[in-house]
Design a protein that fits this description.
Oligomer: single chain
CATH topology of the largest domain: Rossmann fold
Number of strands: 16
Number of helices: 15
Largest sheet: 7 strands, antiparallel
Helix content: 25-40%
Number of domains: 2
Radius of gyration: 26 Å
CATH class of the largest domain: Alpha Beta
CATH architecture of the largest domain: 3-Layer(aba) Sandwich
Structural class: alpha/beta
Distance between the termini: 59 Å
Strand order of the largest sheet: 1-5-6-7-2-3-4
Strand content: 25-35%
Low-confidence stretches: none
């Protein structure tokens, strides 16, 4: 019997090396194909594609390599790898991207291609030496649903209608808000795409270092923060064009907010702005932290539209259960209104993963979500319409508790209550809603 190792059967994936010329690309491919790290590389990329990972993160320490996938915005741990096999796999990935596989300290960035199940994919790899070793990030170009309007993000029709009615006003400030890093550009684009930009002139004043993607019928005016410019340097010239609506994806400072409020008061203009925050009410406090005139801000503010992103339960494997009366009462849902809640699929405990003879069996996982229990994401939207009670709090006592009390008095539906609507519909689970609200 031969002691020679049997060749590993690779998944049907085709990789394409990068390089400035066809000769270099071919040479890179010829170099990696017989390398011992090539099979692990193929299996990793296939697993990432099948599981719908947007990011692959590999952290190299002295003894091992931790690997994680980001799927629908949540990190999932994979079994760690030993350092030796991890090094071979990384050398293969770097060579595919035409990078120096021996460089482990300085930052490198490149890309390569792959074909799996007749679909092509691009992988962008970034490596950087860190104190504990090396960090490697691979980003995929996984096809995503086109998101152009708020309804694409999952806003309830009633909330959308209320927002669009507010957008038809001739003056006032409407704020968009979301968590930092939670889709600001998408919310900004979809929000503006959901209002009438064809019968009124829209302009957006943006930093040239942080331009938002172009939006049809929203003209971009840029300022240069590198020479200490702010939106205030562009506003007087812009007002000569007699715009109907002006947009500021970064409010920058209290001075800018004051000028916005003055323009609203004196020239009856409408503004859209963005501020990162954890809720619509906190967005007000975040603007106030910029130190504008509270009275002027209170008078100008019309509404705040806040969004969070929540994972949707996989409809192919979600598990129904009967909510207890205590749970319904805690969530504010009348008894009998909702018959079933849903939870993510979970494998049975180890003692049940056996056949009738006690032999271990493999538990099949959902082919759609690969056993994660969630598939895709949607938005939770909170629309805060500014009432006189809220304005009075902004002028005199801008605390979260006081704002919450004033908003509740006006019938405001909180972010939590909006999320409970999605739980009641079976769109997501209570556990997922709790995870998102804790951020």
């Amino acid at each position: 019997m031969s002691d020679k190792a049997q060749p590993v059967e690779l998944p049907p994936i085709t990789l394409f090396a990068d390089g400035p010329t066809e000769e270099i690309r071919e040479a890179n491919m010829e170099a990696v194909t017989p390398s011992p790290g090539f099979p692990d590389c193929c299996f990793l990329l296939v697993e990432a594609i099948v599981k719908r990972a947007d990011i692959i993160l590999m952290d190299y320490t002295r003894d091992q390599v931790t690997v994680r996938f980001q799927i629908d915005g949540v990190w999932h741990d994979l079994p760690p790898r030993d350092r030796a096999s991890g090094d071979l796999m990384l050398a293969t990935l770097k060579k595919l991207a035409n990078l120096d596989f021996q460089e482990r300290r300085n930052r490198q960035k490149g890309e390569f291609g792959a074909e799996w199940m007749t679909k092509t994919h691009r992988f962008e790899i970034t490596s950087q030496g860190v104190r504990t070793g090396e960090r490697v990030v691979l980003r995929t170009d996984r096809p995503k649903k086109k998101l152009e309007k708020l309804e694409d993000l999952g806003i309830r029709p009633k909330l959308l209608a209320a927002f669009q009615e507010l957008s038809e006003a001739s003056e006032g400030l409407i704020l968009f808000s979301s968590l930092p890093g939670d889709g600001k550009s998408t919310l900004w684009r979809c929000g503006l795409n959901s209002v009438d930009r064809f019968t009124r002139d829209y302009y957006s004043i943006e930093s040239q270092d942080a331009l938002e993607p172009e939006i049809i019928n929203v003209a971009q005016i840029t300022f240069d923060p590198n020479i200490d410019e702010t939106p205030l340097d562009k506003l007087p010239q812009l007002l000569l064009r007699q715009p109907d609506v002006m947009c500021l994806p970064d409010l920058v400072s209290g001075e800018v907010v004051n000028e916005v409020c003055t323009t609203i008061r004196d020239q009856q203009k409408q503004f859209y702005g963005y501020i990162p925050s954890r809720s619509a009410l906190e967005a007000i406090l975040r603007v106030l932290s910029l130190k504008p005139d509270p009275a002027a801000f209170a008078e100008s503010l019309s509404a705040v539209l806040h969004e969070r992103i929540v994972r949707k339960l996989c409809e192919d494997c979600r598990q129904p259960y009967d909510p207890s009366p205590q749970m319904l009462a805690k969530l504010g849902i009348p008894t009998g209104r909702v018959q079933k809640f849903y939870d993510e699929w979970r494998p049975p405990p180890p003692e049940e993963q056996v056949d009738e003879k006690g032999n271990p069996i493999e538990i099949p996982v959902c082919p759609k979500c690969n056993g994660i229990g969630y598939y895709g994401r949607t938005g939770i939207f909170e629309l805060l319409v500014i009432t006189e009670e809220i304005r009075e709090v902004i002028r005199k006592k801008p605390s979260l508790d006081a704002l919450t009390a004033a908003a509740s008095k006006g019938g405001h539906i909180s972010l939590k209550d909006e999320g409970i609507v999605l739980v009641a519909k079976g769109t997501t689970s209570i556990q997922e809603l709790q995870r998102v609200l804790k951020k």
